[in-house]
Amino acid sequence: MDGRTDRRHGVALAAMGLTAVLAVGGCTADGGEDRATSAGAPAAGPADAGAAERNAAGAGAPTGAAPGAPDLRVDQRSIIYTGTMLVRADDVDGAARRAVETVTAAGGFVGGDQRSSAAADARVELQLRVPAARFTAVVDELAKLGRPEQREIRTEDVTEETVDLDARIATQRARVESGRRLLARATTISDLVSLESELAKREADLASLEAKKRRLDDLAALSTITLTVVGPDVTTAEKETELGFLVGLRNGWRAFLGSMTVLLTVLGALLPWLVALGVPVAALLVALRRRRRRRVAPPVSAPPPVPAARSAP
Predict the structure, then answer these.
(1) Which domain, by its residues, includes 211?
(2) 185 phi, psi to nearest 5 deg
(3) Over pLDDT 90: what percentage of the chain?
(4) Residues with Cβ < 8 Å from 125, sequence gap 6 or more?
(5) Which pLDDT band, with edges at 50, 70 and 90, does 294 fall under?
(6) Distance between the two ends of the chain, CA-based, in angstroms?
(7) Are 79 and 145 part of one and the same domain?
(8) Is residue 43 domain-resident?
(9) CA distances from 303 to 78, 287, 300, 309 (A)
(10) Phi/psi at 310 (nearest 5 deg)?
(11) Does residue 197 lie in a domain region?
């Protein structure tokens, strides 16, 4: 009986010790959470968990561009559009007039106008500037003026050059401002002269960069369309290059005749001057030669006397 009683007391003491250890651990955990909460770290809720997941996903995802980098999406790029069109129409002047009206209605203008009117051989060449956003629509409208025979559209992406110019302009402006501040603090004549020269150079470089930027902006904002309208009888086919011995001989003969024509033309232009100046000069030369001969010729002397014949003894 005594052994069984001792075993029961031992089990009861072990159970009580285990319970005490678990209670102390729970209190410690609760105290830690309470201290964390009182220190300003709130417990994470569902919203915080979602934010943590989004942050983790964002940390693992690649970034699209560095902070401050330019936006180079397709709709933000600087593109220069240029087009060339050849349209054949029965009424060349009427087609040209409608082309100008179409461009004007689209917000553009005529940059050049060259015409040669000769009934069916009439020809009009227009340099049209239209907003880049209306470029395609205007080209389609111009194709309806007659029978389009040639159409070429070219694009040039100048985004990189534009971004580079913007950076260089910003840097050059900072240099100009720095030069102006140094000039304002100059105290000697030599410093003033050197700083003014340096500042003038910096301002000239800045003006050149700004002019290039304005040119690019103008070309990107206003596209260029070269429209040629011809009459029904105008020949627009390009001549094929001819080769061969006979072709070379014919071209050489034409070049020879052209050279002889030029030579005879020059000779005909110089002939009156040669006659007007050559005759007096020739007469003067003849007179001088005769005079020189007279001076050089020896004088005519009398013949020596003949001795008298001696008489015989």
Answers:
(1) 160-216
(2) -100, 5
(3) 31
(4) 112, 113, 114, 115, 226, 227, 228, 229
(5) confident
(6) 227
(7) yes
(8) no
(9) 113, 32, 9, 18
(10) -80, 145
(11) yes
